[in-house]
């Protein structure tokens, strides 16, 4: 099931990442770069919802799609955070916590799969809330202006990213606590 519509949307999300990064090298003014990157990010992020919906609706779910979808999300978030870090719109600590958690939980899930305990680190609502907070905060930070003449997006984006950081740590602790009994059992 490598070439189903949902999987192609997931691949498109991965392919779009260099486009979002590349926008910041365009010879246009900063406001235009910000707007283009924001629109691209939002469109690409919406494919995350769409590919899942279509996979269920068209009965095209697959193990490969289940693997690739979160990888695409992690690439998108990490690449965007690195761009925002480079632009000085996000602090290194926020970026490090979020990226570090993604690496740690991915490694934990891989290890748990090897020992046959994947259910103990299955996706939880905390992880979904964390992803939602990130996917809303990042476009605000990419836009970096005043939206509709009243909404300072950097302020709101920073606040939402702070919420995402809290949810990031909380979800990591949750997953580690769920995995700990399995880890202890296998260490004996």
Overview of this protein structure:
This protein has 188 residues and is mainly alpha-helical. The protein has one domain: CDP-alcohol phosphotransferase transmembrane (TM) domain (Four Helix Bundle (Hemerythrin (Met), subunit A), Up-down Bundle). Helices cover 79% and strands 2% of the residues. The protein has 6 helices and 2 strands. Helix 1 runs antiparallel to helix 2, helix 1 packs parallel to helix 3 and helix 2 packs antiparallel against helix 5. It is globular and about 60 Å long.
Helix and strand arrangement:
Elements lengths: L4 H19 L6 H28 L5 H24 L5 H23 L10 H19 L2 E2 L3 E2 H35 L1
Antiparallel strand pairs: 1-2
What's the quick description here?
This protein has a two-stranded antiparallel sheet. With 188 residues, it is mostly helical.
Average pLDDT confidence is 90
What share of the residues does DSSP label as strand, in percent? under 5%
Number of strands: 2
Low-confidence stretches: none
Structural class: mainly alpha
End-to-end C-alpha gap: 39 Å
What is the H level of CATH, i.e. the homologous superfamily? CDP-alcohol phosphotransferase transmembrane (TM) domain
Order of helices and strands: HHHHHEEH
**Total individual domains:** 1
What's the shape? globular
Most strands sheet: 2 strands, antiparallel
Q: What level of helicity do the residues show?
A: over 70%
| CATH top level label | Mainly Alpha
């Amino acid at each position: 099931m490598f070439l189903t519509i949902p999987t192609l949307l997931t691949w498109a999300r991965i392919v779009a990442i260099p486009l979002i990064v590349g926008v910041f090298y365009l010879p246009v003014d900063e406001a235009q770069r910000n707007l283009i990157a924001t629109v691209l990010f939002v469109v690409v992020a919406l494919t995350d919802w769409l590919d899942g919906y279509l996979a269920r609706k068209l009965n095209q779910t697959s193990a490969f799609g289940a693997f690739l979808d979160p990888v695409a999300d992690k690439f998108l978030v990490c690449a965007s955070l690195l761009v925002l870090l480079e632009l000085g719109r996000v602090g290194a600590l926020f970026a490090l916590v979020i990226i570090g958690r993604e690496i740690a939980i991915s490694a934990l899930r891989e290890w748990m799969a090897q020992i046959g305990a994947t259910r103990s680190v299955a996706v939880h609502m905390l992880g979904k809330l964390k992803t939602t907070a990130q996917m809303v905060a990042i476009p605000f930070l990419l836009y970096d202006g005043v939206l509709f003449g009243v909404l300072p997006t950097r302020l709101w984006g920073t606040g939402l990213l702070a919420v995402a950081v809290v949810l990031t740590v909380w979800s990591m602790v949750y997953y580690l606590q769920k995995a700990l009994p399995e880890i202890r059992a296998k260490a004996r």
